[in-house]
Every structure is written in C-alpha cells, then in structure tokens.
Amino acid sequence: MGCLVVLLGAFFPRIALLFIWLARPALFQAALGPLFAIAGIIFLPFTTLFYVLLWNPTTGIQGFDWVWIGLAVVIDLASYGTSAYGGRNQYNYDRV
Predict the structure, then answer these.
(1) What's this model's pTM, rounded to 2 decimal places?
(2) Residues 6 or more apart from 65 whose CB is under 8 A from it?
(3) Is the predicted pLDDT of residue 96 greater than 60, yes or no?
(4) Nearest to 64 by CA among 74, 52, 54
(5) What is the rounded average pLDDT of the residues 54-71?
(6) 10-32 burial: b if 16+ Cβ within 10 Å, else e
(7) Strand partners, 56
(8) Where do the structural domains in the chain lie, given as residue ranges?
(9) Per-residue pLDDT tens for 2-51?
(10) Which long-range contacts (CB under 8 A, 24 or more apart) does 52-55 make?
C-alpha cells in the first residue's frame, strides 16, 4: 500500500498536466511552448503544473503567484533530494 501512495504522489502532477492539456490545449500551449512543456513534465512537474494553473492570458504570472511558483520549485527539488538521500545506501563506496 505504501508503494502505491508513493507512485501516486510521483505521477500526480504529470497526470494532472495531461488532463489539463487534453481539456484546454489552447491555454496550455499559450502558457508554455512545446519544448518547455515537455521539459517541465519530465524534470519539474509541480512547477509546470503550478505555472499552467496560475497563468492568466491577460497578465501572465505576477505578484503573489511567484511565491506559489517558488514553492513548487522547492517541492520538485525536495523530491530529487529525498530520492538521492534515500538511495545513498545502495552504493558501495568501499570499492573505489
């Protein structure tokens, strides 16, 4: 059961972005270019999700929205950091 929760947490932003992309492709393409969208989905999914959700066609991202984008960046970097910290015991440094 724990592995299922971890997988759901890992793939949630990617699945949410897929649904947004399917439901409102014009909004998604206006907020992000195709290269940034693909790179964002692969490397920074929470940041991309927050950016698409907060982006306004008339004003873009402004004001307090940048705080949410910053929080999403921290969440993405924390997910990479915790996976590196969790896998530290898999490497044998004595062989070097």
Answers:
(1) 0.75
(2) 54
(3) no
(4) 54
(5) 90
(6) eeebeebbeebbeeeeeebeebb
(7) 60
(8) 12-81
(9) 677 777 777 888 888 889 888 988 888 888 888 888 888 888 899 999 99
(10) 52/17, 52/20, 52/27, 52/28, 53/20, 55/27, 55/30, 55/31
